[in-house]
Amino acid sequence: MSDSRSTPPAALATAISAAGKIILGKERQIRLALACLLARGHLLIEDIPGVGKTTLAHTLAQLLGLHFSRVQFTSDLLPADIIGTSIYDRERGSFRFLPGPIFAQLVLADEINRATPKTQSALLEAMEERQVTAEGETRPLPEPFFVIATQNPSHQIGTFSLPESQLDRFLMRIDLGYPDRDAERALLAGGNTRDQLRTLQPALGPEDLQPLQAAAAAVRTSSALIDYVQALVEETRRDPRFLHGLSPRAALALLSAARAWAFIEGRDMTLPEDVQAVFAGVAAHRLRLAQGSGHASADDLAALIRRTPLP
Protein backbone atom coordinates (compact mmCIF):
# COMPACT_ATOMS: atom_id res chain seq x y z
CA MET A 1 0.00 0.00 0.00
CA SER A 2 2.34 2.76 1.21
CA ASP A 3 6.10 3.15 1.24
CA SER A 4 7.25 3.41 4.86
CA ARG A 5 10.58 4.81 3.71
CA SER A 6 8.97 7.92 2.24
CA THR A 7 8.89 11.06 4.36
CA PRO A 8 5.35 12.37 4.85
CA PRO A 9 5.81 15.39 2.54
CA ALA A 10 7.30 13.12 -0.16
CA ALA A 11 4.40 10.69 0.07
CA LEU A 12 1.94 13.55 -0.13
CA ALA A 13 3.83 15.06 -3.06
CA THR A 14 3.44 11.72 -4.86
CA ALA A 15 -0.31 11.77 -4.20
CA ILE A 16 -0.62 15.40 -5.37
CA SER A 17 1.34 14.67 -8.55
CA ALA A 18 -0.78 11.61 -9.35
CA ALA A 19 -4.04 13.49 -8.66
CA GLY A 20 -2.86 16.29 -10.93
CA LYS A 21 -2.77 13.85 -13.85
CA ILE A 22 -6.48 13.16 -13.34
CA ILE A 23 -7.73 16.61 -12.27
CA LEU A 24 -5.81 18.70 -14.78
CA GLY A 25 -4.68 22.22 -13.93
CA LYS A 26 -6.10 22.16 -10.38
CA GLU A 27 -3.09 21.51 -8.14
CA ARG A 28 -4.07 24.24 -5.69
CA GLN A 29 -7.53 22.74 -5.17
CA ILE A 30 -5.99 19.28 -4.71
CA ARG A 31 -3.65 20.66 -2.06
CA LEU A 32 -6.52 22.39 -0.28
CA ALA A 33 -8.53 19.16 -0.24
CA LEU A 34 -5.58 17.27 1.27
CA ALA A 35 -4.99 20.04 3.81
CA CYS A 36 -8.65 19.76 4.83
CA LEU A 37 -8.26 16.01 5.35
CA LEU A 38 -5.02 16.38 7.31
CA ALA A 39 -6.70 18.97 9.54
CA ARG A 40 -9.45 16.40 10.28
CA GLY A 41 -12.10 18.57 8.65
CA HIS A 42 -14.69 18.08 5.94
CA LEU A 43 -14.80 19.66 2.50
CA LEU A 44 -17.60 21.38 0.57
CA ILE A 45 -17.15 21.87 -3.17
CA GLU A 46 -19.58 24.28 -4.80
CA ASP A 47 -19.57 24.57 -8.57
CA ILE A 48 -21.56 23.90 -11.70
CA PRO A 49 -21.98 20.29 -12.90
CA GLY A 50 -19.24 18.79 -15.05
CA VAL A 51 -16.07 20.45 -13.75
CA GLY A 52 -14.68 17.44 -11.85
CA LYS A 53 -16.11 17.60 -8.32
CA THR A 54 -17.01 13.91 -8.19
CA THR A 55 -13.81 12.89 -9.96
CA LEU A 56 -11.73 14.69 -7.32
CA ALA A 57 -13.41 12.68 -4.54
CA HIS A 58 -12.89 9.39 -6.40
CA THR A 59 -9.25 10.28 -7.08
CA LEU A 60 -8.46 11.06 -3.44
CA ALA A 61 -10.12 7.86 -2.24
CA GLN A 62 -8.13 5.80 -4.74
CA LEU A 63 -4.80 7.49 -3.98
CA LEU A 64 -5.24 7.22 -0.22
CA GLY A 65 -6.59 3.66 -0.27
CA LEU A 66 -9.76 4.70 1.57
CA HIS A 67 -13.02 2.78 1.70
CA PHE A 68 -15.26 4.96 -0.46
CA SER A 69 -19.00 5.41 -0.65
CA ARG A 70 -21.16 7.81 -2.64
CA VAL A 71 -24.61 9.09 -1.72
CA GLN A 72 -26.60 10.85 -4.43
CA PHE A 73 -28.73 13.39 -2.60
CA THR A 74 -32.25 13.84 -3.92
CA SER A 75 -35.43 15.36 -2.54
CA ASP A 76 -36.81 11.94 -1.53
CA LEU A 77 -33.65 10.73 0.27
CA LEU A 78 -34.31 9.80 3.91
CA PRO A 79 -31.95 9.94 6.92
CA ALA A 80 -32.07 6.13 7.18
CA ASP A 81 -30.76 5.92 3.60
CA ILE A 82 -27.55 7.52 4.91
CA ILE A 83 -27.22 6.18 8.45
CA GLY A 84 -28.68 2.71 8.00
CA THR A 85 -31.64 0.80 9.34
CA SER A 86 -32.56 -2.26 11.35
CA ILE A 87 -34.25 -5.31 9.84
CA TYR A 88 -35.76 -8.30 11.57
CA ASP A 89 -33.62 -11.42 11.29
CA ARG A 90 -35.94 -14.44 11.51
CA GLU A 91 -33.13 -16.92 12.12
CA ARG A 92 -31.78 -14.97 15.09
CA GLY A 93 -35.21 -13.82 16.26
CA SER A 94 -33.99 -10.24 16.68
CA PHE A 95 -33.34 -7.03 14.79
CA ARG A 96 -30.05 -6.56 12.97
CA PHE A 97 -28.58 -3.20 12.04
CA LEU A 98 -27.57 -2.70 8.41
CA PRO A 99 -25.02 0.13 8.23
CA GLY A 100 -25.66 2.85 5.66
CA PRO A 101 -23.12 4.46 3.34
CA ILE A 102 -22.01 6.87 6.09
CA PHE A 103 -19.88 4.00 7.45
CA ALA A 104 -17.00 4.61 5.04
CA GLN A 105 -13.67 6.39 5.33
CA LEU A 106 -14.37 8.82 2.50
CA VAL A 107 -18.03 9.66 1.91
CA LEU A 108 -19.06 11.64 -1.16
CA ALA A 109 -22.32 13.49 -0.49
CA ASP A 110 -23.16 14.41 -4.06
CA GLU A 111 -25.40 17.45 -4.60
CA ILE A 112 -26.08 17.82 -0.89
CA ASN A 113 -28.33 20.83 -1.42
CA ARG A 114 -30.86 18.78 -3.41
CA ALA A 115 -31.95 16.90 -0.26
CA THR A 116 -34.37 18.22 2.35
CA PRO A 117 -33.00 19.92 5.49
CA LYS A 118 -33.92 16.88 7.63
CA THR A 119 -31.76 14.58 5.52
CA GLN A 120 -28.95 17.14 5.33
CA SER A 121 -28.86 17.40 9.11
CA ALA A 122 -28.54 13.61 9.49
CA LEU A 123 -25.27 13.71 7.55
CA LEU A 124 -24.00 16.88 9.17
CA GLU A 125 -24.60 15.58 12.69
CA ALA A 126 -22.54 12.50 11.88
CA MET A 127 -19.77 14.75 10.55
CA GLU A 128 -19.67 16.73 13.78
CA GLU A 129 -19.90 13.83 16.23
CA ARG A 130 -18.05 11.21 14.13
CA GLN A 131 -20.64 8.73 15.33
CA VAL A 132 -24.28 7.95 14.70
CA THR A 133 -27.07 6.87 17.01
CA ALA A 134 -29.62 4.47 15.59
CA GLU A 135 -32.13 2.23 17.35
CA GLY A 136 -30.87 3.53 20.71
CA GLU A 137 -27.26 2.48 20.12
CA THR A 138 -24.30 4.75 19.37
CA ARG A 139 -21.96 3.49 16.68
CA PRO A 140 -18.58 5.10 15.95
CA LEU A 141 -17.68 5.96 12.38
CA PRO A 142 -14.46 4.69 10.81
CA GLU A 143 -11.11 6.40 11.15
CA PRO A 144 -10.07 8.28 9.17
CA PHE A 145 -13.47 9.78 8.35
CA PHE A 146 -13.68 12.43 5.63
CA VAL A 147 -16.79 13.84 3.98
CA ILE A 148 -16.62 15.61 0.64
CA ALA A 149 -19.95 17.24 -0.15
CA THR A 150 -20.71 18.82 -3.50
CA GLN A 151 -23.43 21.34 -4.14
CA ASN A 152 -24.78 23.15 -7.12
CA PRO A 153 -25.00 26.95 -7.09
CA SER A 154 -27.98 27.97 -4.95
CA HIS A 155 -29.75 29.73 -7.83
CA GLN A 156 -30.28 26.41 -9.64
CA ILE A 157 -33.75 24.86 -9.51
CA GLY A 158 -34.58 22.29 -6.83
CA THR A 159 -31.98 23.19 -4.22
CA PHE A 160 -32.25 23.63 -0.43
CA SER A 161 -29.56 26.01 0.81
CA LEU A 162 -27.52 24.86 3.80
CA PRO A 163 -28.11 27.09 6.83
CA GLU A 164 -25.15 28.90 8.39
CA SER A 165 -24.84 26.48 11.30
CA GLN A 166 -24.51 23.56 8.89
CA LEU A 167 -22.13 25.34 6.55
CA ASP A 168 -19.90 25.85 9.60
CA ARG A 169 -19.50 22.05 9.89
CA PHE A 170 -17.28 22.18 6.80
CA LEU A 171 -13.71 23.19 7.51
CA MET A 172 -13.30 24.42 3.93
CA ARG A 173 -15.32 25.29 0.87
CA ILE A 174 -13.64 25.42 -2.53
CA ASP A 175 -14.63 25.61 -6.18
CA LEU A 176 -12.88 24.04 -9.13
CA GLY A 177 -13.89 26.36 -11.93
CA TYR A 178 -13.25 25.89 -15.63
CA PRO A 179 -9.83 24.51 -16.63
CA ASP A 180 -7.46 26.80 -18.47
CA ARG A 181 -7.06 26.33 -22.22
CA ASP A 182 -4.00 24.07 -22.02
CA ALA A 183 -5.50 21.84 -19.34
CA GLU A 184 -8.79 21.54 -21.22
CA ARG A 185 -6.96 20.65 -24.44
CA ALA A 186 -4.97 17.97 -22.60
CA LEU A 187 -8.24 16.67 -21.18
CA LEU A 188 -9.86 16.51 -24.62
CA ALA A 189 -6.84 14.81 -26.15
CA GLY A 190 -6.22 12.40 -23.29
CA GLY A 191 -9.48 10.45 -23.26
CA ASN A 192 -11.71 9.46 -20.36
CA THR A 193 -10.16 10.11 -16.93
CA ARG A 194 -12.42 7.38 -15.46
CA ASP A 195 -10.27 4.83 -17.28
CA GLN A 196 -7.15 6.30 -15.66
CA LEU A 197 -8.79 6.09 -12.24
CA ARG A 198 -9.13 2.32 -12.51
CA THR A 199 -5.36 1.92 -12.82
CA LEU A 200 -4.39 4.50 -10.20
CA GLN A 201 -2.19 3.01 -7.48
CA PRO A 202 -2.48 4.18 -3.84
CA ALA A 203 0.31 6.49 -2.71
CA LEU A 204 -0.71 6.13 0.94
CA GLY A 205 -2.90 3.83 3.00
CA PRO A 206 -5.53 4.47 5.70
CA GLU A 207 -3.02 3.40 8.33
CA ASP A 208 -0.74 6.26 7.25
CA LEU A 209 -3.29 9.04 7.54
CA GLN A 210 -3.76 9.21 11.30
CA PRO A 211 0.00 9.66 11.95
CA LEU A 212 0.06 12.29 9.19
CA GLN A 213 -2.90 14.09 10.76
CA ALA A 214 -1.12 14.05 14.12
CA ALA A 215 2.07 15.37 12.52
CA ALA A 216 0.17 18.17 10.79
CA ALA A 217 -1.48 19.17 14.08
CA ALA A 218 1.99 19.30 15.69
CA VAL A 219 3.37 21.88 13.23
CA ARG A 220 4.58 24.79 15.34
CA THR A 221 2.90 28.18 15.47
CA SER A 222 4.63 31.23 16.90
CA SER A 223 3.01 33.85 19.10
CA ALA A 224 3.32 36.33 16.23
CA LEU A 225 1.50 33.95 13.88
CA ILE A 226 -1.37 33.59 16.34
CA ASP A 227 -1.48 37.39 16.55
CA TYR A 228 -1.82 37.47 12.76
CA VAL A 229 -4.71 34.98 12.80
CA GLN A 230 -6.43 37.06 15.46
CA ALA A 231 -5.90 40.22 13.44
CA LEU A 232 -7.52 38.65 10.36
CA VAL A 233 -10.46 37.38 12.40
CA GLU A 234 -10.94 40.75 14.10
CA GLU A 235 -10.85 42.48 10.71
CA THR A 236 -13.79 40.33 9.53
CA ARG A 237 -15.72 41.43 12.63
CA ARG A 238 -15.08 45.11 11.93
CA ASP A 239 -15.82 44.95 8.21
CA PRO A 240 -19.30 46.41 7.57
CA ARG A 241 -19.70 44.32 4.41
CA PHE A 242 -20.19 41.18 6.49
CA LEU A 243 -23.27 40.40 8.56
CA HIS A 244 -21.14 38.66 11.19
CA GLY A 245 -17.41 38.16 11.54
CA LEU A 246 -15.59 34.86 12.00
CA SER A 247 -16.28 32.94 15.22
CA PRO A 248 -13.64 31.52 17.59
CA ARG A 249 -14.34 28.09 16.08
CA ALA A 250 -13.58 29.52 12.64
CA ALA A 251 -10.31 30.95 14.00
CA LEU A 252 -9.35 27.48 15.24
CA ALA A 253 -10.25 26.04 11.83
CA LEU A 254 -8.06 28.64 10.12
CA LEU A 255 -5.11 27.76 12.33
CA SER A 256 -5.59 23.99 11.83
CA ALA A 257 -5.82 24.38 8.05
CA ALA A 258 -2.73 26.61 7.98
CA ARG A 259 -0.74 24.00 9.94
CA ALA A 260 -1.83 21.31 7.47
CA TRP A 261 -0.85 23.49 4.50
CA ALA A 262 2.59 24.11 6.05
CA PHE A 263 2.99 20.36 6.58
CA ILE A 264 2.19 19.65 2.92
CA GLU A 265 4.79 22.27 2.01
CA GLY A 266 7.34 20.33 4.08
CA ARG A 267 7.76 22.84 6.92
CA ASP A 268 7.58 22.34 10.69
CA MET A 269 6.65 26.00 11.33
CA THR A 270 3.48 27.79 10.20
CA LEU A 271 4.09 31.00 8.25
CA PRO A 272 1.75 33.88 7.38
CA GLU A 273 1.64 32.70 3.75
CA ASP A 274 0.19 29.39 4.97
CA VAL A 275 -2.64 31.29 6.65
CA GLN A 276 -3.19 33.33 3.51
CA ALA A 277 -3.21 30.20 1.31
CA VAL A 278 -6.14 28.65 3.19
CA PHE A 279 -7.94 31.81 4.31
CA ALA A 280 -10.49 32.01 1.48
CA GLY A 281 -11.30 28.29 1.73
CA VAL A 282 -11.92 28.53 5.47
CA ALA A 283 -13.58 31.94 5.65
CA ALA A 284 -15.69 32.54 2.53
CA HIS A 285 -18.63 30.25 3.38
CA ARG A 286 -18.73 31.57 6.95
CA LEU A 287 -19.00 35.25 6.00
CA ARG A 288 -22.44 36.27 4.78
CA LEU A 289 -22.71 39.67 3.13
CA ALA A 290 -24.72 42.30 4.98
CA GLN A 291 -26.32 43.38 1.70
CA GLY A 292 -27.95 40.57 -0.31
CA SER A 293 -27.93 36.83 0.31
CA GLY A 294 -24.46 35.88 -0.88
CA HIS A 295 -21.18 35.13 0.86
CA ALA A 296 -17.78 36.81 0.76
CA SER A 297 -16.02 36.69 -2.58
CA ALA A 298 -12.36 35.97 -3.24
CA ASP A 299 -11.85 39.68 -3.95
CA ASP A 300 -13.41 40.62 -0.60
CA LEU A 301 -11.04 38.32 1.25
CA ALA A 302 -7.98 39.31 -0.79
CA ALA A 303 -8.65 42.97 0.12
CA LEU A 304 -8.99 42.01 3.77
CA ILE A 305 -5.61 40.22 3.67
CA ARG A 306 -3.96 43.21 2.00
CA ARG A 307 -5.05 45.64 4.71
CA THR A 308 -4.11 43.36 7.64
CA PRO A 309 -0.48 44.03 8.66
CA LEU A 310 1.90 41.07 8.59
CA PRO A 311 3.56 40.12 11.88
Structural write-up:
This protein is α/β, with parallel strands linked by helices and 311 residues long. It has two domains: 8-210, P-loop containing nucleotide triphosphate hydrolases (Rossmann fold, 3-Layer(aba) Sandwich), CATH 3.40.50.300; 218-307, Magnesium chelatase subunit I, C-Terminal domain (Helicase, Ruva Protein, domain 3), CATH 1.10.8.80. Helices cover 46% and strands 14% of the residues. The protein contains 13 helices and nine strands. A five-stranded parallel β-sheet has the order 2-5-8-1-9. The chain has a two-stranded antiparallel sheet with strand order 3-4. Helix 2 crosses helix 11 and helix 12 (272-283) packs antiparallel against helix 13. The termini are far apart.
Throw out a few tags for this protein.
13 helices, Rossmann fold, 311 residues, Helicase, Ruva Protein, domain 3, 9 strands, alpha/beta, 2 domains, two-stranded antiparallel ribbon, five-stranded parallel sheet, globular
Indicate the topology.
Layout: H1 8-20, H2 27-38, E1 43-46, H3 53-64, E2 68-72, H4 79-83, E3 84-89, E4 94-99, E5 106-110, H5 117-129, E6 131-134, E7 137-140, E8 146-151, H6 164-167, E9 172-174, H7 181-190, H8 193-198, H9 206-217, H10 223-238, H11 248-264, H12 272-283, H13 298-307
Parallel strand pairs: 1-8, 1-9, 2-5, 5-8
Antiparallel strand pairs: 3-4, 6-7
